[in-house]
Predict the structure.
Amino acid sequence: MDFSIALILVQDGIVNGAIYALLALSLVLVFTVTRVVFIPQGEFVAYGALTYAGLQAGQVPGSVGLLCVLGAAAFLASLWAERHQLGAGRVARLAAGTLLLPAAIAGLAWLVVPHHPGVVVSALLALLIVTPVAPYLYRVAFRPIAHASVLVLLIVAVGVHLALTGLGLVFFGPEGSRADGFTDAIFDFGTVSVAGQSLWVVGLAAALMAGLSLFFGRTLTGKALRATAVNRVGARLVGIGIERSGEIAFILAGAVGALSGVLIVSLTTIYYDTGFLIGLKGFTAAIVGGLASYPVAALAAIGVGVLESFASFWASAFKEVIVFTAIIPVLLWFSLRHHGVEDEE
Amino acid sequence: MSRRLSRPLWALATVAACLLVPWLPFLPPYWITLGNYVGIAAIVAIGLVVLTGEAGITSFGQASFVGFGAYATAILTTRWDISPWLTLPASLAAAAVAALALGAVTLRLSGHYLAVCTIAWSTSLFYVFGNLEIFGHNDGITAIPPLVLGPWRLVDTQSYFSVVWLGVALAAWLTSNLLASRSGRAIRALHGGAVAAASFGVDTMHARMLAFVHAAVLAGFAGWLYAHFQRAVNPTPFGINASIEYLLMAVVGGAAHIPGALLGALLVGVVNDELQDLLPRLLGAPGNFETIVFGALLIGVLQVSPDGLWPHVRRLLSHLPGGLARPAQAEPSATAEPLPRREMPPADSPVLTVRGLWRRFGGLVAVGDLGFSVRAAEIVGLIGPNGAGKTTTFNLLTGVDRPTSGEVEFLGHPIAGRPAPAVARLGVARTFQHVRLVRTMSVLENVALGAHLRGHAGPLAGMLRLDRTEEARLFAEAWRQLERVGLAGQALRPATALPLGQQRIMEIARALALDPVLLLLDEPAAGLRAGEKATLAALLRRLREEGVSILLVEHDMEFVMGLTDTLVVMDFGVKIAEGTPAAVRHNQAVIEAYLGAPDDEADAPAGAA
């Protein structure tokens, strides 16, 4: 391997790593706010990718149907959860958020698709279609047992992953998709050439991270989310609604997942079940960050991306093995650092 | 007890059922085959009862161990023509070795880290199976020889049914024996919190590893059965989705119950089979749509009935005659030889000496330069306002927490910084300020846990019921201690059914079952009525007469003043007084700590607990 190949591999690694970093951040966010280890994060990547690819191909993507189905499920789940305190106004607001909103988005997709929307419109529409799925899932699967142990929430998250994979097959079919990137420009820097799409990916990822850090640092909602993450009871005492925080965390997770999908579908073919492995790589990074630190998780994600791209060059069949085994030394270090007896939650 | 079958009869009935059921004339072979798959899965799910239901470890990697078992026998039988009966130990060993290696690296991790980690390594192993020459790449290994028993080749689905379900019965029998044994109690104690378990000498890492390896070996056994039934293996059934399905079975059936594992395996197996036909027809396309239903099922069960379906079924069954089994050790054994007692140190000799003990949490000094001693057959009270550092001191003395610096000497052994089980082994037993009992155990079993270190039987002896004599002695000791504290009448009730005050008394019985030289009691009188307090005081005096030394934290001053020989008073982590109760009562510093200094009367009444 010469230097130029190494440079290409590093570049590939950083691009993929940027996407893993987004996923890792979103996982840390959801975990700290809701204690849910969000295994289905990867499904949002696949949904976002396939929705965007569908729009680009001039079809109304299957996820529109999925959105409507889950919206209806969320409506019923919310009615049941709040059955003792329902008024007409509340029901109307619930219906607007879970029935009308998906219908409106579906209508919008219907109107836009025949006009062959450009990449940006398609990307935005894909985000609009996929993102609400996450808060709907929160209402259906997680809110009713928000106080269960982390492990129970994790098993439920695995259940959601299982269901979403199956639903993905129903609504998208078994074929894989690939779509055009935002640009096909190639920039030459001496011996290295950089694809414009790579710059888009890294740039958008960086912008999103910066945006999230502003959101958490400067806005009241962001601060409320941080407060919930630090101390749930305390946050409640000062009037921060845990459920509201949970819902916002899920909305962000859905949007981040969908955007990651839109970005990655120009780099590789995405199938309905590809998301799991991608999400798991985000996990590897999030775990290195202790499921708590954003910057460490982001750096680790870049590391995972670079490791993956070198692994696929040297031993492509063992790419996944190498990436997922890399987590073990980190965990070993965790466990050796850990002394004494502690009770688990 | 005429309406209950005795053990050998049960065994005979089970064997007969396994041999005869597949030949029932009205059962189509298709059902028998389904029954074989259900049985194989049930063995994996029984392993999860120990691992997830009892030890509280969630694994998304059980299918990998099934894979180790299946590939081990596939490789050995096809490459070297070794008889499948001889490869059975190899399959079990392959799973066990894999579990030991993975467990050594990951079992120290706490709950969800460990669970996510199992996803990572099981995904990784799936690709290893699919990409290595020795595992036959993604095509796997075919032409695996069938099991042969004398003149019979067990190739038909009916004969194999008998093999599989005898295997299920064996797995269930061994596992329920294990859970009822000394090693099993150690595993179940993890559920009540690692701190309490460790304080009674349970090596928690060892107990977790035992559960992990047991579950893996059962999975390996299932893999061996699978390989010789299917006669071919490939990586697909050993992937993450299969692992999730095994967990689903355990959760749906009820992860804490062996019959629940069978129920879960049956339900998931049958539903899976039905849906694999129905859904693609309904949706007009081929595919694994059943995952939608499984996902929804997992979510639904955990929301509606987190303990699974078995507890409900059992409640229904308990209305039938002869429904509920009699608990083991239902009465004290009259013949069990008492356990050997520890020799108590001579009266007045030093038992516990604490010198210059510090514990800092960041900038906060929880315990600062603490020093005191407890002599043999002495009751020492450790008192002080809330937040004075009393419980922290207890944790430092018992190895639950490590001191920042300082010396603790117990009967001449330095114990500062030693792990909790090592301290317990020397003869230090304790109770907790917030009761820590194992919720899934009876009062009697909780107390028997205290005698953990006085038994020696290992997991194998427990599984094969070779530990009966020792078990009888341990339980006889538990009964004795319960009688001593006046709880014998409650022995067979679930520990959680006792009122809080009695739970504290039960903790004292548990501590006594360790045969302690030094007893540390954290607020033993809290929640007791006046009469109960008097009984408790009498018990502690009797223990003192027997030579036991006692260190107790207590807020009830009347109780403390009447009982203790020496008082140590702490405030803000520092010792402010030491002496006889009478002397301490008039100590100016103590009065100020409790009531405030005379010159700041504004906030005086606070803290007079």
